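anyone else get weird line breaks when pasting these?? whatever heres mine. first is seq + tokens for prot A
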Amino acid sequence: MSRLIEFIDTSTRDGNQSLWSATGLTTPDVLAIAPTIDRVGYHALDFTSSTHMAVSVRFHREDPWERIRLVSEAMPNTPLGMITTGMRFISWVPADEGVIRLALRLVARNGLRRLQIADPSNDPERLKRLAAMARAEGLEEVVIGLTYSISEVHTHAYYAERAAALSDCAEMDRLYLKDPGGLLTVDAVRELAPHFLAAAGARTVELHSHCTIGLAPQVYLEGVRAGFQVLHTASGALSRGTSQPEAISTARNLEAAGFSHPLDLEAQELVSKHFHELARVKGLQPGAPREFDAAYYRHQLPGGMVTTTRRMLEELRRPELFDQVLDEVTRVRAEMGYPILVTPVSQFVASQAARNVIDGERWANVSDETVRYFLGHYGDPAAPVDPAVAERVLARPQSGKLRDLKPITLDGARERFGRRISEEELLLRLTMPQEQVDAMVGAKSTPRPAPAARPGRDPLVTLLRELSRRPSISRFSLVKGDETVVWSRAS
């Protein structure tokens, strides 16, 4: 028999974030298609993150906990997952262990069953610590990721070493290679696969990439040949572009290469049509195939950040600076010790590059978050930072205050926010502006809006409806594989 390859659907989280700035989907939009997604046969959904939960509150005045509950109830067969970068929840300010444990406990209590952990520093000890906390707080499946990048220090030996360091993590159920920039080549995935397989042992290994420079579909096929067992894909308008490869075309590629998969592609076609219709109704740009662009290997910004940077410069009426800013990203990243350009560090690097170009003097203005990076609040850099730049940044007036920045804690939270609110609301109030949470709470008394698009009828429902309209047919039987549907007209 051909080897079976599982799929993870990324549409509602990474697809929505990569293509629609995480704001494109409302709870009704997702809930309308959830039962159909549940029939497709995904191992799990990469469903949300604390950033997406904040977007639900800030942009849609929706309760993110309710979204988790409703969708998990509508999808009993498919685990919903969350991705986290580590010791923070919603706010960029670090959170202490009590806050993180509460967040993990609440997402599990409200219906999430899977957690993907991807620390931007790829620190095995930080990853293991969070995995242990996730297991203790009730997450059923813990998936640890190593985030791919290319630099003087991010070599294949670097990834082999860190994968090996995770091999003894008792709480790790799965290991995955996360490629947010879409930088993997077929040669690279072929060389990295043995190290991930060895570290995982009997556990499953997953592969996650983006179509940003057009290589991901081929990388997926070569990754499967090299031993990866699970692929992360997206649906319809939420695939391709800067998102993941499209699910149906990936499945067809696997079939052509002699592999099998568990997906019901008829159900998946309905899912894809739903997201295409949402894009049409909302005026959102669907993902489209991308041409190879070697410039990404120089600046390495994720595709979403490239789009955001271009838009920011257009808003500042300085679009002509775009290429200069991308060149400056390369220089800033080296001076910051070659951080991997994923959230939130990619935002710091891109904004600093833009400041350097617009100001005309490099490092003349620095954000608080960049100061915190140089203070080590986001983990140790992969390589030493430029000492001259570090000296200049840490000499800024705000560095003294930020050096002693205290993490968010639960201490006194009940006294500040009240003892009658739920733990879920308490956590939102602890990490978000009061007026945004107040607006969300106030919106609960208004009727839920209809989804922007409704999925088409299931083909079986359409068939049964047509049978009911034909009085000459009194009984009908449909056999597909081991399943039989019998319809008969009531006498």
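and prot B, same format (seq, then tokens)
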Amino acid sequence: MSMGQGVLAARLLGVEGAGYVGIITQFSSNINRLTSFRMGELVISYVGEFSANGRRRQAAAVFKAAMLAEIASSLLAFTLVVALSPLGARIFAHAPNLTGLFMFYGLSVLANLMYESGSGLLQFFDQFRMIAIISVGQSVLTLLLIVGAFLMRAGLDMVVFAYLVGKIALALSISVAALWQARVVWGPGWWRVPLSVLADRRSDMVRFAINTNLSGTLKLITRDSEMLWLGAFSTPVQVGYYKIAKAITNLLMMPVSPLITTTYREVAREVAGERWRNVRYLLRSGSILSATWTLPLSLGLVIFGQWVVAIYGLEFLPTSYTNLLLLLIGVIVVNIFYWNRSVLLPLGMPEYPTKVLFIGAIFKIIGTILFIPRWGANGMAVLLTGFFLFTTSVLVWKTLHEIRNAELTPAISIVD
């Protein structure tokens, strides 16, 4: 359904219009992520830890603290979107007349008041069926709106509206489901638990949140804001070519994305119990599952990729197909070793991924400034693949090294 949305939008708007959609949607989403502290990971880690030890009040307080922090960061993000939209329209889209659309799509940020915290809570309590139903429902709604826009031969405004409605529906539904889950698990008065019950772990939680935010921000700068970099140093047309190539690679990454959160949750439990053989089993099994999907589909895209790109429109050939081939190299590696960053968090090393991503970000930003004005979308594809190869290899090596050291270290009983 996601691919169907992209195909219809691309055929309706053309290369440049597709580029505008990518820039507008990524602008608001990235400002929201910039102020976010990745509360989903914090909720999974600390709700999991306190629940395992029978400390229900502390577990409820973690979710409450994460929710309040996320609400504050979302309000800040919306303020920034409104304030920076004129600048964003001019720098990234080279179209000051689109300022209103930048601000309009910023409403999606307000709907994200507690989306990450809620999603983390639902994941920890095995509510993946609920998340799946909501996600599919949101995709159906967005697809229907875009089909309507396509049949009406509407313009950019209607397509942006369709994506906005879908985004709001997803965020609000997840938030409501999470509040319901909290009530089921901790009772109707869970939100009255004072945050002071977390006093003994406050510094650890703050450190965790700051480092996951920094790590996420570096990821944001290097791989989740490429359309903005491309728009700033090239043209919306190049963004359109690149957007289609990225959309096709999402076929590879989409089924693997749920493995990240499920593996992280299970690994966090096994690390807490110092069951290192189980940790290795989870990582190995996850990589085999991912490779079973990733490798055959990648081969198929190499062979039939031009026909797939042509579905979006012949005007996207051959540039988007070249982008696709360049991106596949990095996507294959990061897909198979999808757990490369997250496992270091329960191992007590939240700073290490941040440092690795920071080094990779420096080189990628330098490469963007030097090569994107000349190479456009192809240059961005090369840079992203290089970034994936560097960061994934270093983080996988570090993760396995730490697991090996932990296996050789005698277990130490820790009294909470």
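btw re prot B: The chain is about 80% helix and 0% strand. Residues 1-206 form one domain.
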